[in-house]
Amino acid sequence: MQLSTITDETRLAVSNLTARATGLVTPSLRLGVTGLARAGKTVFITALVHNLLHGGRLPLFRAYASGRISAAMLQPQPDDDVPRFDYERHVAALVGDRLWPDSTSRISELRLTIAFESASYFARTLRSGKLHLDIVDYPGEWLLDLALMSQSFVEWSREALKRARTSLRKPAASAWLGRLASIDPNAPEDEALARELAALFTGYLRASRADSEQISTQPPGRFLMPGDLEGSPALTFAPLDVDNEGPPGSLARMMARRYDAYKNIVVRPFFRDHFSRLDRQIVLVDALQAMNGGAEAVADLETALASVLSAYRLGSSNWLSGLIFRKIDRILFAATKADHLHHEDHDRLEAILARLVGRALERAKFAGAKVDVLALASVRATREGTVLQDGERLPSIVGTPLPGETLDGRLFDGKTEIAVFPGDLPADPEALFLAHDEAPLRFVRFRPPKLERTAEGLTLSLPHIRLDRALDFLIGDRLA
């Protein structure tokens, strides 16, 4: 074990012990909300808080439905060095403007304190009847970085080049790959060349992220969100086509050194200070977007999920070991945008997600963690109906496509409501991984709904699909 690892583990143990001690009066639960880019992390957190604050319809959240939750209130978050999740601005975007909030670009945190009455008389006499729910949100690109902790520069380079040369990514990577083919990695280190290669590699990453048919991204994530590290050596490197780190003073050795610096300066502190302190986890997955890209995009998503999920500390823990070592004892995988499908296809969407995260599911179960998979819409943007097609009545969804969305050659302006038959997902998830001549599935994006109002003019809570089931699994046992 490396000295840095021993030091990190010691710091983690002290931090966890301090946090548990301060939570003896009012316990806390740290919930990580993660997922790759555009999976809906910000929307999930906003909808979760909005429904608890505004009396949402949550029949499957048992503590809430039974009336044992008496109040929920926002509180200052415990970590003074972490920005607050901007809940109010995101609610204004969803409810007032009917626009989806901006994607997560930095780590943020929000504390929601829940007042409840335990279902157990014994528990009511020992506990305060309050739970601090600390929700931690961070960019999907940072999540991908965790896989770098177990990879050397040579291993990372080999994997990065393999992915860049696939038909899905090669167009975006062509400029970088072309320049890479013209250099000698064993030549003397060259700062100008290092900066040029880093810029070309970053351009490839940015183009891949902007492609609507791609769901995952290639680490390092901070290349797209450099912050105050922009221009530093820790962010000025790129993969090379090498079998070793090269001789001292070479370009390859220079890149390897900066790759290690990136892990030490960016990745390990994030894992130590934030990721490793989580108690529960929800992983949001936009499987529908991957389906839009076809079999190669689906396989790419599976690879990305397997890579990032290997970093989780999973397992059950008793009250004594939990004082020092934190483990994620419950993890929920949620396929987002279930409202883009008729409810008859939700079981198939869950089966597809279970196939995508199959390796992670088995690992979590083996470690003793509880796991679940569900189809979810944190904010329901559509309602269900029927359409007549070739004399046949087909189940449909009804909603307002976002401005710029197209369907069958029709361009939408963000004001027109349509009813559309979204098609059927395959009964066998394996079909999505097989290349075929059929056109890939296509799903349009819809605007957030216009919220209903009561007779008194009060705006109701954000509608959803299975947000209550997600809440019951993630925190229900702590409110029992």
Explain what this protein looks like in three dimensions.
Strand 10 and strand 11 (410-411) form a beta hairpin. The protein is α/β, with parallel strands linked by helices. Helix 11 (287-293) runs antiparallel to helix 12 (295-309). It is globular and about 70 Å long. Helix content is 37%, strand content 15%. The longest helix has 23 residues, at 251-273. The chain is built from 15 helices and twelve strands. It has helices spanning 3-22, 41-53, 62-65, 87-96, 121-126, 140-145, 153-164, 170-180, 191-210, 251-273, 287-293, 295-309, 346-356, 358-367, 467-475, and strands at 28-35, 69-75, 108-116, 130-137, 280-285, 330-335, 370-375, 383-389, 392-399, 406-407, 410-411, 418-420. The chain has a seven-stranded mixed sheet with strand order 2-3-4-1-5-6-7, sandwiched between helices. It has a three-stranded antiparallel sheet with strand order 8-9-12, with no helix packed on it. Strands 10-11 form a two-stranded antiparallel sheet.
